[in-house]
Each structure stands twice: as C-alpha cells, then as structure tokens.
Amino acid sequence: MLKIGKLAQQAIAAASYLAERHDEDARVSAGEIAEARKLSRTVLAKVLATLSLRGITSGTTGPTGGYRLARAPGDISLFEIVSAFERTDVRPMCPFGPHWCGSGDLCPLHDGITAAAEKVEEFLKTQNLGPFRERKRDGQRTASSRKSSTQPSPRRRAIR
Fold it and tell me: Could you list the residue range(s) of the whole structural domain that residue 30 is in?
C-alpha cells in the first residue's frame, strides 16, 4: 500500500482527536470532532460508524452519547485504522501497465516501488495513537482549544 485515501486520512484525524481526549470520562460528539479537525459531519459519521464496526471506537446515542476509543490509544495502530478503509493486500501497479511486471522481466522501477510500499506499511504498523494522548498530557493544546488563539495555525499537509 503506497497511497492513503481521503476516508482513511479522515479516520486518522478523528481517531487522533479521540486519543487526545482519551483520559477524559466524557464521550465526544461527532460534531465536536468535525469542528476540531475541520471535517465534513456527514462523511465523519460514516467514518466513525466504520471505526466502531472494527472495534476501534465505541459510540452511544442520547444526551450523554458520543464517541470514544474502544481501547487505549497505544493499542491502536495507524495500520488498523487505514485497513478499515483501504485494501492493504494490493501492491502498487507497475507504472508501465499490467503487462510488464508479472508477465516477464520486472520493470526497472519494480524493486524501488515495492520497497517504498513496504516502508509505508511498516510505518503504519509501528505507529499508534499513543503520541496524541501524550501530546495532550504534555500540555499542548488540542484543535478545539486552538480556535480561540490569535496565532495563525500551521498548514496541514495531506498524507498522500
């Protein structure tokens, strides 16, 4: 896997927010997550439902309802989140088309592309949501507390 799609990116954003709030007893509303991470509420609802089905989040309805992580942040890998939205068993296709690699000699880029895909997968497997929880504990502000700040926020870079 070399590319991380938009839904998987949004899932990481939502789960990281829940990790920041993990030590708090209250559940977090989808609206709060959407506002804090600048995500569409409609899409976020689908993302949170998928994460809940995978046992990554748990959600309850009602006046005190909302979402929280189903396990400790350090026990949830980015790979687990991404694999809820992306096929992780598919390798990048040869840039020369389907009839080069696999149908004779490998193309000159094959080994490099394969190595890059394996590095991305290994990174996702070894990284978890723990640092987001630590970030909150270390006194850094969450996205929701940043909105009142007068300092401009840094630009977000998309994972591609």
Answer: 6-90+128-146
Band of pLDDT at residue 67, cut at 50, 70 and 90: very high
Strand partners, 128: 77
Residue at 80: amino acid letter: E
pTM of the model as a whole: 0.78
Among residues 37, 38, 70, 27, which one has the least CA distance to residue 51? 70
Instruction: Classify residue 60: in a domain, yes or no.
Output: yes
Are 110 and 94 in contact by the 8 Å Cβ rule? The answer is yes
Q: Judge whether 67 lies within some domain.
A: yes
Rounded to 5 degrees, φ, ψ at 144 are -70, -30
Q: 157: which DSSP letter? A: -
Query: Could you tell me which residues are beta bridge partners of residue 58?
Result: 68
Contact 37, 48 (CB under 8 A): no
